[in-house]
Write a structure and sequence with these properties.
Radius of gyration: 23 Å
Helix content: 55-70%
Order of helices and strands: HHHH
Shape: elongated
Largest sheet: none
Number of helices: 4
Number of strands: 0
Distance between the termini: 58 Å
Strand content: under 5%
């Protein structure tokens, strides 16, 4: 009887701990951001009227391809202080940390379109 009891306890413990860790991972995984659902409206609200819709000689950010290509430079410029050369959005207040985090998360999530 003792020979069966020890393996039973070990197997039960493994199963219980395995299920606990799987449930925790499932609840902490945040959905990935996409250009269409998350970033496009942020860009439209903060980069218009210069980049969205395209105006003059400014690169248009009303399309996924341009934003995907330029996201590193966009993040670099929105992280600058308003007194720094190259700061964006031009003639507007600095974006909040939570808005800048959207740009960073979209890049980290793999620059998904939809």
């Amino acid at each position: 009887m003792k020979k069966l009891f020890v393996p039973f306890i070990i197997i039960t413990t493994i199963v219980v701990f395995n299920r606990c860790s799987s449930q925790r991972k499932a609840t902490t995984d945040a959905p990935k951001l996409t250009y269409e659902n998350d970033l496009k409206t942020v860009i439209a609200g903060n980069c218009s009227p210069c980049h969205f819709p395209p105006k003059g000689n400014k690169k248009p950010y009303d399309n996924f391809a341009n934003v995907k290509t330029d996201i590193d430079e966009m993040i670099r410029r929105i992280e600058l202080n308003p007194t720094d050369k190259g700061f964006m959005p031009f003639k507007k207040p600095k974006l909040s940390d939570s808005v800048i985090a959207i740009f960073r998360k979209w890049r980290a999530d793999g620059r998904l379109e939809k």
